[in-house]
Design a protein that fits this description.
Length: 281
């Protein structure tokens, strides 16, 4: 198992690979994109995925967290249309965070593990995570962390992948525990983490499939075989995920039922941690 530092360095090398550089150019995105009818180029598709995951831009005064923020293009889009909101991006990779700071000077960034942040409980209105949660060690821990960070009624919105054969991408990228297979299991993980009934949409046909078909068509030699396997055997479900943290009254009732205590007792209090533990920019 790689340490966090080793994972970040391996990920940086993967992003800087000539093939990946060719795909994403200097867009700052690193996702497969959402290929609506009018979309012809990769950066456009990446931006469309961000818009679909986010649902809307942040409103004035809101606080949004982007978990697994890449090199900052999604945070830049969010912050650009909402200068009076607070957008925070976190990533394991220092190199990517440095690039994100240059790309999105209006947002704030920190080197942090999304599965165990040093951020204050109930301090975000929305947590987004685009094509990153399958990397987290583990996804289940991240979902618990996201629920802790959201205010009651706050929203989690993600693009995430359930793999059929994660090995094609590289075993190191996806912890064994994250390799759940069905949307039902995925929904159960969200509920176990404390979220209300989730909405899951399989958008493989508009995301993973067109991305791989395009790469396959452009590839030559051994690369063609790689993209064929990516297209046909690798992914079971590419998901758009939405869930809300229950409002305070519902959460308190759940805690009371589960722990036999009264609302407002220690069962509903969370330990306080400090944002200052992260490196802000
Ligand atoms: C496929 S990229 C997506 C980047 C970005 N969300 C986008 O759409 O352009 C996955 C990102 O997750 C980051 N990542 C992986 N594991 C992480 C972790 N445990 N905590 C924070 N970020 C992580 C990677 O460094 C990478 O930037």
């Amino acid at each position: 198992m790689l340490t966090a530092g080793e994972f970040a360095r391996s990920y940086d090398r993967f992003m800087l690979d000539a093939r990946m550089q060719q795909v994403y150019a200097s867009s700052g995105y690193f996702n497969v994109g959402y290929w609506g009818a009018e979309i012809a180029e990769q950066p456009e598709a990446c931006g469309e995925l961000v818009r679909r995951v986010a649902g809307r831009r942040p409103r004035a005064g809101e606080r949004w967290l982007d978990a697994g923020c890449g090199t900052g293009a999604p945070a830049h889009w969010l912050q650009d249309g909402a200068p009076e909101a607070s957008v925070i991006g976190i990533n394991l990779s220092e190199r990517q965070i440095d690039e994100a700071r240059r790309r999105a000077p209006g947002a704030r960034f920190a080197v942090m593990d999304a599965a165990r942040t040093a951020l204050r409980p109930e301090s975000f209105d929305t947590v987004i995570s685009i094509e990153a949660a399958f990397h987290f060690r583990t996804r289940a821990e991240f979902l618990g962390e996201a629920c802790r960070l959201l205010r009651p009624g706050g929203r989690l919105r993600m693009a995430d992948i359930l793999f059929a054969e994660a090995g094609h991408l590289g075993e190191w990228m996806t912890p064994e525990e994250n390799r759940i297979r069905t949307m039902e299991e995925y929904a159960a993980e969200l509920t176990a983490a404390g979220f209300g009934p989730p909405r899951l949409r399989d958008v493989t046909a508009w995301s993973w499939t067109p991305f791989c078909k395009r790469q396959h068509a452009m590839a030559g030699g051994r690369e063609r075989e790689f993209w064929r396997r990516m297209l046909t055997d690798t992914v079971r479900h590419y998901l758009l995920v939405e869930a809300e943290k229950p409002a305070a009254s519902q959460a308190a009732a759940k805690a009371t039922a589960e722990e036999g205590r009264w609302p407002g007792s220690a069962a509903t209090q969370l330990p306080s941690t400090e944002e200052s533990a992260g490196r802000w920019g």
